[in-house]
Amino acid sequence: MRLRTGIYIAFLFCAIGLSAQDNVIDQVVWVVGDEAIYKSDVENARLDAARSGMSFDGDPYCIIPEELALNKLFLNQAVIDSIETNDMEIAQQIDARFAYYVEQMGSMERVEQAFETTEKELRAEWYQPVKDQIIIQKMRDKLVEHVKVTPAEVRRFCKDIPKDSIPFVPTQVEVQIITQEPKIPQIEIDQIKEQLRDFTERVQTGRALFSTLAHLYSEDPGTAAQGGETGFFGRGEMVPEFSQVAFSLTDPTKVSKIVESEYGFHIIQLIEKRGDKINVRHILRKPQVDDADIDSCLLRLDSIADAIRKGEFSFETGAQYISYDKDTRNNKGLMSYRQYANAPANSRFEMQQLPYEIARQVQRLKIGEISDPFTMTSNSGKVICAIVKLKNRIDGHTANVSEDYQILKNLVLAAKQEKTISEWIKEQQKSIYIHISPGWNNCEFKYPGWVVR
Length: 453
What we know:
The protein is α+β, with helices and mostly antiparallel strands. 46% of the residues lie in helices and 15% in strands. The chain contains 14 helices and 12 strands. The strands form 4 sheets. A 4-stranded antiparallel sheet has the order 8-4-10-9. A 3-stranded antiparallel sheet has the order 2-1-12. A 3-stranded antiparallel sheet has the order 5-6-7, sandwiched between helices. Helix 1 packs across helix 2 (39-51), helix 3 (60-80) packs across helix 6 and helix 7 packs across helix 14 (401-431). 30% of the residues are buried.
């Protein structure tokens, strides 16, 4: 179920965001509380799932409205519990959505053709649906934040589960990485700073609105369409350089000094402070890297890889003292991820969990081998150069406690979390007004407690 909620529902949101408002009288098919679900919402979600190559385990006209009804329950509770998100998180999710579609369709041009609109317009239309998606996931996380699993429960699970039901663990790899960033010409940095100083002067003299300049020139895809507005965020929710300057602002008529972060160069304008939260506008400009500087960076990494292969120093030492990657530098270059917030770091990746560029290199390597240099895009949108080493490969096998404790623990935890959420949903169904139109209620719902009134 978690797979369907985490992946399939993402496309439901985007489909609803793109729902065409034709000159046709729409039909309300469900009502949850004071929120309506329209036939067009369901139909657009079905069409978008088909466009994405996704299928349903049952009747989509039963599955989709139930999922939409569940979303409304979570969003309603999120308002009560003051669950929020920020534009940086939204932008990252929208970027991931585009990356998926580009991978499926081959190019951004084909994506625009499929949706019959531009990338910029899609970003604006997806903003609210993606925001809701993030808030729903945060609400689900809050509902299960106190659910824990003990070693005894994991052992009991392994003892009681039928042997033919024990999960098969696909091949996993452990990967180390060293990255370098191409040098940005000083003239490019100077030009960007001069442009930002010009923006500041135009705002301060009243010749332009900050929001208009952000809409026209900001390279932050998550906020440009909103005139640079980030939405309210706390101190720890943005990169430190940005937060430090943003929280120092006191006059909404002024513009900050130029701020450099891993994303590029910003100027910031205060909108409002509310307790320990702040809402600002910003304009982001990203320096462009020349092909010659990328080639120079690749050559530098090629020399580093060659020196490691010759035994002049180890990959681990190179990662500690040469790599630009702050997430792996202190872990001797070893890549890792967390299954969920506060979960222990896991260094074993299935191939599809790795960034595409890295997976492409790893599949060619034997254990202990180092790749040739390659380019990839960092989480902050920068072009970086990298080499990777295949530290270990664990062939696919039936899960066992000694080797796959964390995987089995996650299975038990997921089951307990799903039970907790199911119980919460059943309680909500008892207390909220629900109406399902005739013709839409002849379904075997996952949660049968929907009451027709």
